[in-house]
């Protein structure tokens, strides 16, 4: 399998190089040259398979040429052995139609662990025989940061510089990052929003002063390997609910469009999906884009779902690439225009390509809180606010009542205990995994949200 850039001019790479590269050199994102397909029989054959066996079947076509089955099994066994649930990503039923797919049983209690535990091991494996030291620069609205830090702390040949928006992550999220004192981990609070942090990361990939001095890589979902690992749980859940003979809908709380794009990949691979419901908070650029074609940024409004307080969703570019008929050079022109004006109108013919599969909803704070209370009262489940945004969207999507809807439960409620308590009156207990978090020393630096400030900081410290 080789990978091509959404902007059409970076060299095609194999899986190993794509994993280490992160972003393509033309500023685009890597995608497989073709979408591999699983037949209905192969999907049916996943019934009863363990998470690791499912992962091997789903990821095998993407890693051809870089990993054989034995290597993939070894990495997945290690990665998912760190999860606190035998099913890795268990399904929980809420009512006759609604299910939760709990993705938060990993070390940092958010869905990011599913991909980042594997990515940490992939980095280690691919770096073993190379004389390369990676400088990972990442942006987080809270969860990617802690998952990446857990996966990479103490690993040889990698330094991690993680940018989070100062004051805009929950106290638990911040401490999960800043109390890890390994010498290869650097936490930076930038004085701006997540979008500023993400823009700085992308600018560093395009900055010759940086790239001539360090080998950069990415842990954000711009890195293809992140998304690949997330495709697995769509198959795992759908098969348990009757796929391929029965269609399933998924409701996905969305920020950077990574998680829901993984659902799109599952659909391209042959998984029968009724609808992918893109759930946004009031920072609703993706809902506007999918429903009216208006892909224009406003100011970011801080909400009780900080991990979704995003305007510029990196992975939307991957969908636009397919909707454009995979015309990378044309998309490069569109993306350059968007980067300058922060606005784009998606042509109707492109939008039509998305309408059969995607639905979307904008969920405000009241809708989010009432979905959280519904899950608690109806099924005794305490949900985190992001999951509640997904559930609220699931319940208003108008999906036929015989189609199961799986809401992706993207974080443990304890990560957002103030918001959960405000909505339900119940304060989630801190899981043992977070024990002592508030007693540990924190270490981070605060920087202005500029390329110059972050570049100087990174270059001074990277090996
Ligand atoms: C808890 C939680 N839910 C949902 C999202 C949105 O996911 P994505 O950015 O892949 O759309 C994030 C951040 O990525 C998150 O941390
Ligand atoms: N919500 C995310 C934002 C970064 O998303 P990513 O999936 O591209 O890493 C976070 O938790 O940091």
UniProtKB/TrEMBL annotation:
Coiled-coil positions: none
Enzyme Commission code(s) on record: 4.2.3.1
GO molecular function: pyridoxal phosphate binding; threonine synthase activity
Broad EC category: lyase
Swiss-Prot/TrEMBL GO biological process terms: threonine biosynthetic process
Domain Tryptophan synthase beta chain-like PALP: from-to ranges: 87-324
Modified residues (N6-(pyridoxal phosphate)lysine): 112
Catalytic activity: O-phospho-L-homoserine + H2O = L-threonine + phosphate
Taxonomy, superkingdom: Bacteria
Cofactor section: pyridoxal 5'-phosphate
Pfam families linked: PALP (PF00291), THR4_C (PF24857), Thr_synth_N (PF14821)
Keywords: Amino-acid biosynthesis, Lyase, Pyridoxal phosphate, Threonine biosynthesis
Source lineage: Bacteria, Pseudomonadati, Pseudomonadota, Alphaproteobacteria, Sphingomonadales
Record's protein name: Threonine synthase
Similarity comment: Belongs to the threonine synthase family.
SUPFAM superfamilies xrefs: Tryptophan synthase beta subunit-like PLP-dependent enzymes
Pathway participation: Amino-acid biosynthesis; L-threonine biosynthesis; L-threonine from L-aspartate: step 5/5
PANTHER family the UniProt entry points to: THREONINE SYNTHASE FAMILY MEMBER, THREONINE SYNTHASE-LIKE 2
Presence of the UniProt keyword Nucleotidyltransferase in the record: no
Domain Threonine synthase N-terminal: 3-80
């Amino acid at each position: 399998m080789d990978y091509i850039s959404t902007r059409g001019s970076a060299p095609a790479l194999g899986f190993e190089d794509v994993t280490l590269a992160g972003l393509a050199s033309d500023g685009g994102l890597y995608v497989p040259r073709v979408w591999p397909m699983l037949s209905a029989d192969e999907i049916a054959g996943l019934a009863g398979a363990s998470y690791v066996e499912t992962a091997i079947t789903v990821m095998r076509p993407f890693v051809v040429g870089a990993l054989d089955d034995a290597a993939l099994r070894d990495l997945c066994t290690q990665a998912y052995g760190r999860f606190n649930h035998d099913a890795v990503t268990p399904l929980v039923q809420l009512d006759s139609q609604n299910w939760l797919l709990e993705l938060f049983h990993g070390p940092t209690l958010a869905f990011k662990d599913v991909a980042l535990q594997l990515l940490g091991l992939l980095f280690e494996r691919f770096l073993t025989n190379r004389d390369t030291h990676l400088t990972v620069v990442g942006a987080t609205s809270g969860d990617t940061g802690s998952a990446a830090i857990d996966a990479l702390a103490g690993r040889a040949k990698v330094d991690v510089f993680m940018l989070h928006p100062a004051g805009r992550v929950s106290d638990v999220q911040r401490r999960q990052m800043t109390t890890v004192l390994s010498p290869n981990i650097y936490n930076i609070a930038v004085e701006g929003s997540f979008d500023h942090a993400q823009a700085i990361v992308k600018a560093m990939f395009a900055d010759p002063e940086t790239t001539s001095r360090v080998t950069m890589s990415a842990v954000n979902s711009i890195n293809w390997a992140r998304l690949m690992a997330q495709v697995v749980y769509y198959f795992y859940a759908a098969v348990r609910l009757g796929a391929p003979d029965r269609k399933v809908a998924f409701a996905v709380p969305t920020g950077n469009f990574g998680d829901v794009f993984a659902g799109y990949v599952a659909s391209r691979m042959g998984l029968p999906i009724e609808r992918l419901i893109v759930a946004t908070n009031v920072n609703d650029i993706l809902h506007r884009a999918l429903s009216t074609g208006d892909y224009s940024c406003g100011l970011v409004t801080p909400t009780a779902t900080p991990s979704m307080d995003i305007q510029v969703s990196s992975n939307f570019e991957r969908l636009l690439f397919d909707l454009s008929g995979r015309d990378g050079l044309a998309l490069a022109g569109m993306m350059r225009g968007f980067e300058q004006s922060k606005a784009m109108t998606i042509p109707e013919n492109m939008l039509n390509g998305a309408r059969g599969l995607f639905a979307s909803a904008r969920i405000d704070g009241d809708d989010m809180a009432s979905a959280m209370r519904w899950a608690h009262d109806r099924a005794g489940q305490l949900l985190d606010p992001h999951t509640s945004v997904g559930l609220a969207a699931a319940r208003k999507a108008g999906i036929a009542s015989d189609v199961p809807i799986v809401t992706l439960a993207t974080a443990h409620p304890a990560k957002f205990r103030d918001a959960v308590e405000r909505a339900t009156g119940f304060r989630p207990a801190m899981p043992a995994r977070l024990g002592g978090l508030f007693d540990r020393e924190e270490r981070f630096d605060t920087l202005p949200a500029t390329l110059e400030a972050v570049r100087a900081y990174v270059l001074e410290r990277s090996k």
